[in-house]
Amino acid sequence: MTTESTDVTSSQEPSTASAPFDKANADVVLRSSDNVEFHVHTLLLGLASGLFEDMFALPQPTAPTGPDAHPCTGLPLIYLTEDGRTLDCLLRLCYPVLDPVLDDLALVESVLRAAMKYQLDDVVARLCKSLSAFAPRDPLRVYTIACVLGLDQEARDAALALFHDRADLSLDTYMPDMDRITAGAYYRLLQYCGMLYSGKCPPETFTFCTPGNNPVVVLPGHAEYSSSPLTGPHPFTHQSADLIVRSSEGVDLRVHQLVLSLASPVLADTLKQPPDPDAPAEGGLRVLSLPEQSRTLAKLLQLCYPMEEPAFEHRDQTLAVLEAALRYGMPRATQHARRAWRTGIKLHPPASYIAAVRNGWADDAREAISHAVLELHDVYVPEMEDVSARVYRHYLLARQRLRDTLFPAPEGTEGTLPYWSDTGAAFEEEQTHHRFTWAVCKALAAASAAGERAQDRRLLVTALVQDGQGTCVCKAASLESLRQFVLESQVLQTRLREAFAKIDVGT
C-alpha cells in the first residue's frame, strides 16, 4: 500500500537498506521512491509516531498479496514518496542507534519535511535545532527553509543571524532559493532586520511565515478593503430577467442572457451549453454560478448594461473587476476597469507592480517602479502573500537601479538611498534633497517610464512652481541657475530612459 497517491515508482531494481534496516525479524517493509527497502519494526515506528501507531493498529490482511506484499518475505509492503537517503536518516532518528550525520541543509530540509509529514514530534524538535545550527553560516537559506515549512521560531533564529552577519539591508540580502517563499515572508525578513538596524526592539509576537499582527506602515490611501457580500438595493433585480448569476457568497443577480452573451463571448459559449440537470434553478430560471464575489459581479455587470459606469470603492475591487473582465473577454468592461485601475498606480506602487507582473502588464509594471523610486516608506500589501519573493526582489532591484541613476553615489561609496526601509528616516526630503529637486526627479521618473520626452523642461519647472513645491527655490534662484537645472534635467531624463530600457520588470 502507499501513504498517498503520488507516483513513487522507480526504474531501479529494489535493494535492501543497510543495518539496522535489514533484520529478518522485521514485521513490515517500507519502500522508498528510489526502490530502497527498509525492513522495520512497527513497534518502534508506532512509539515514535502517532500516525504510524494508528496506521498499524488498523486491521491488516493475514496474508498480503500482490503489490501490497513483499515478494521475498511476504511482509506488508508500504510505498513511501521519500527517497532512500531521506528515509535512512529519518528512521535512524526513530531507532536506538547513532544519529545520522546531517551535514547539508538540503538533507536537513528533506528529513524535517518527512518528520513533520509523519508526525514524528520528537524527531521534528531535534531537527529544528539542527536547522537553526546552520543559521550563522547560511541565514538566508535557513530562513527560506523555515518559511517553506512554516517554522516561525527557526525563521526568527535565521533573521537574527542575518542581522549579526550583515551591516545593513543591502542588495545581496537575497539568494535564488528564496524564490520558494512568498514576497510577504521576504518583506517580513527585511522589516524585522530593519527594526534591529534602527535600534528598535521587534515585538515578541512578530511572525515571519504569515502576516500575524506585525506592525505595518499604513499610508494615506492604503487602507484595507473589506469586501462583505452585496446587501441592500442594486440594479440587478429585473423582473424580465431570464438568468440568475450567483456569486461565490450565494448572492443572486437577475440578468438577461442576451446582454451577457453580447458582452462576453466566453459566457456566451457557456450559456449555449444545455444546463446540467443537477444544476441549481431558481423560480424556473437557469442559475449561472461564478467564482467572483457579489460586489465584483455587480460592478462587472454594470459595465455590460447601457447604464452609468460604476465608481469603484477600492483598488482591490477595481483589480478584481479588471481580472474578471479579462477572464470573460469583456472588452468594454476591461477598458473601463483598466483605466480606473491605472489611475491608482501612483498611489500604490508595490500592489500595482505585483498585479501588473501577475497579469503580464510590462508597461504598468515599469510605471509602478517609476512612482516607487522616491517612496519614503516600504509598505506591506496583502498581495505579497500571493506571489513569490522573486517578484518583490525584482521590484526592489529595479527601483534601486533607477535610484542609482537619479542620485549616483561618489565613486567608492554606497548610494544615499537604501535598498529597503519602512521608516523613511533616510529619505527625509529636507535632509536628502531639496524639495524642488525631489519633485522634479519624481516627474522625470514618471515621464521616462512612459517613454515620454518633454518638449521644454521649463514647462515642468513652471508647473512645479505653480504647485507650490518649488516656490522656495524659485524666489531665491537666478534665471541662470534655473536654466542650468533645466539642462541637467534633460540629461538626467536621457539617462533614466536608458535605465528603464534595461530593466527586467519580471513579467
In a nutshell, what does this entry contain?
The chain has 507 residues and is mainly α.
Task: Report what the structure shows.
This protein has 507 residues and is mainly alpha-helical. It is 47% helix and 6% strand. It is built from 21 helices and eight strands. It has helices at 42-48, 50-57, 84-92, 105-117, 121-133, 139-149, 152-165, 183-197, 257-263, 265-272, 294-302, 315-327, 331-342, 349-359, 362-372, 389-406, 429-432, 435-449, 457-466, 471-476, 479-502, and strands at residues 15-16, 28-31, 36-40, 77-79, 243-246, 252-255, 281-282, 285-289. Strands 1-3-2-4 form a four-stranded mixed beta sheet. Strands 6-5-8-7 form a four-stranded mixed beta sheet. Helix 11 crosses helix 12 and helix 18 runs parallel beside helix 21. The chain is flat, with a radius of gyration of 30 Å. The chain starts with 14 loop residues before the first strand and ends in a 5-residue tail after the last helix.
Write the topology of this structure.
Elements: E1 15-16, E2 28-31, E3 36-40, H1 42-48, H2 50-57, E4 77-79, H3 84-92, H4 105-117, H5 121-133, H6 139-149, H7 152-165, H8 183-197, E5 243-246, E6 252-255, H9 257-263, H10 265-272, E7 281-282, E8 285-289, H11 294-302, H12 315-327, H13 331-342, H14 349-359, H15 362-372, H16 389-406, H17 429-432, H18 435-449, H19 457-466, H20 471-476, H21 479-502
Parallel strand pairs: 1-3, 2-4, 5-8
Antiparallel strand pairs: 2-3, 5-6, 7-8
